[in-house]
Amino acid sequence: MATLRVYKMRADAVVPRYKTSGAAGMDLAACLASPLTIAPGGTARVPTGLRIALPAGHEGQVRPRSGLAARHGVTVLNAPGTIDQDYRGEVQVLLVNHGDEAFRIESGDRIAQLIVAPVGSGARRNRARRRRLRQHRCLEGAIHQLGNSRLRGGADMLCDELATLEDHQRWDAADAVL
């Protein structure tokens, strides 16, 4: 079983926990010295007072709490936010207030959910994929088909692309045996 290590940067930080046995995510709580208000249309970076160490081959996904979105129009700005396996800074949640009224957050308020999920088949496979990427200038109006994804490039657009469709198919076959 993979272990998520959590370090409390402040004594009043709330360690994430699953609220029920069927919960998909752990609640993340605000850790604030004083209340924070997000104006309608405004955004805020809300600290949790936590640093985490994700298990190898996993990422953290920061997702909105549906109740905040439904009742107040408050959601995670970059949903889902991604926490990389090697990130060791404080976990902070970017919130946006799409509601019509200011939204007040106090220390200890649940503001988002954290889901720990495996990434591909682990770090070895991800390193292999990164080696296959190269950057080039796309031709104007060109369509590059790579598996199921399509990239439409403008004259000055830079694209990250797997070298050619043939190489892509060959690499997929090689990945299947990793």
General form: globular
Task: Give the averaged pLDDT, no decimals.
Answer: 77
Classify the helix fraction into a percent range: 10-25%
Strand order in the largest sheet: 1-4-8-6
Strand fraction band?
35-45%
C-alpha termini separation: 21 Å
| Class inferred from helices and paired strands | alpha+beta
What Rg do the Cα atoms give? 20 Å
Regions with little confidence, pLDDT below 50 for 5+ residues? 133-178
Q: Using DSSP, what is the number of strands?
A: 14
Total number of helices: 3
SSE arrangement, N to C: EEEEEHEEEEEHEEEEH
Largest sheet, if any?
4 strands, antiparallel
Could you walk me through the main structural features you see in this protein, from its secondary elements to its overall organization?
With 178 residues, the chain is an alpha+beta fold. Helices cover 16% and strands 40% of the residues. The protein has three helices and 14 strands. It has helices spanning 66-72, 123-132, 165-175, and strands at 5-8, 26-29, 36-38, 43-53, 58-63, 74-76, 81-83, 90-97, 103-105, 110-118, 133-137, 143-146, 149-152, 158-162. The strands form five sheets. Strands 1-4-8-6 form a four-stranded antiparallel sheet. The longest helix has 11 residues, at 165-175. Mean pLDDT is 77; it is low at 133-178.
